[in-house]
Amino acid sequence: TREIRLASRPVGRPTNGNFELAESPLPALEDGQILVHNLFMSVDPYMRGRMNDVKSYSAPFAVGKALDGGAVGEVVASRSSAHKEGDVVVHSLGWREYAVVDGSAATPARTDLAPASAFLGALGMTGLTAYTGLLKVAEFKPGDAVFVSGAAGAVGSLVGQIAKAMGASRVIGSAGSPAKVARLLELGFDAAFDYHDGPVVEQLEKAAGPAGIDVYFDNVGGEHLEAALAVLNVGGRVAMCGAIAQYNSTEPTPAPNNLMQAIGKQLTLRGFLVGGQRQHAAEFAEKMAGWLADGTVRYDETIVEGLENAPQAFMDLLDGANTGKMLVRL
Length: 330
Ligand code: NDP
What we know:
InterPro entries: ADH-like_C, ADH_N_2, ER, GroES-like_sf, MDR_fam, NAD(P)-bd_dom_sf. The chain has helices at residues 46-50, 125-137, 154-165, 178-186, 200-208, 222-231, 261-264, 281-293, 310-318, and strands at residues 2-6, 19-23, 33-42, 71-78, 88-91, 98-102, 107-108, 145-148, 170-175, 191-194, 213-218, 232-240, 268-271, 301-305, 325-329. The protein has 330 residues and is of the alpha/beta class. It has two domains: 2-121 and 300-329, Alpha-Beta Complex (Quinone Oxidoreductase, Chain A, domain 1); 126-275, NAD(P)-binding Rossmann-like Domain (Rossmann fold, 3-Layer(aba) Sandwich), CATH 3.40.50.720. The strands form three sheets. Strands 3, 4, 5, 6, 7, 14 and 15 form a seven-stranded mixed sheet that branches. Strands 10-9-8-11-12-13 form a six-stranded parallel sheet, with helices on both faces. It is globular, with a radius of gyration of 20 Å.
């Protein structure tokens, strides 16, 4: 199979030279395994962290070895009683065209509910992150005013729409271009701004008005988190989901400088990983399927063609070229 390997560890922003397209023989299937022809693979911001040689919540990628990550594909051969040829499954051996996967590590994708790609996005890990981050981590309740950064991205766009669907008093999003801001308003956000247009705190204060915000869903960190801390109401909650403004940093980043706000305002800042939220997967899947079916929640996809373009898709994701979920079609 063709696969993408990590050729070297990026320092700062990744470049083409950090990746290598290679060919690898497929091992024969053992009992319990399936052969999957990948249809789509996911590129995700967290993969940037795994390219560094540091101990973290997920092991670093090895130099000279294929990368991995979420993928959805069709079973083309099976020695597992759990999956048969023709089934569509989600698994974690992306960055290659064909994958030999343990049957127990593959989950059926309900393609009667949505196209296969949705199981990497709105109906997959991305959707579960948005749903649980907002409802379980930030403990959103109806009437809350919500601010989400990275709002035109895969997770952020779902967070805003879920908040609206569940009775938010106001949903505010920030994103990196005028087109993304326009898209957020189409998706039902009450207000949106381009963070390049001026200090985030000023734009957020204006968008929130005197009512302030009760929940901040943080995908970005840095200046965005600092602004949210300034604007949050007493008793406000922050779901710390990501800090993409820092993923390529080679130096520690100073913001937020106002963490002390958390004391006087009695704020809750709670970090989370979607992997720790799996107990809510069934509840999430049922709710999200309903919202997609009745049009309450819509999702965008940015699709790049071909495995050979996966490194570029990943680099473009970090640069904000995507609206909604960034995917590679294999
Ligand atoms: P997105 O679809 O949101 O893509 C990333 C986006 O980040 C880009 O499109 C870009 O949009 C934005 N961005 C890049 N650099 C900056 C910057 N310096 N400042 C502000 N925005 C920037 O990705 P995901 O939806 O997959 O992930 C969103 C966040 O959620 C990430 O931080 C990710 O690590 C995190 N995450 C965390 C999980 C968890 O378990 N805790 C699980 C999944 C995701 P723009 O044009 O607006 O700049």
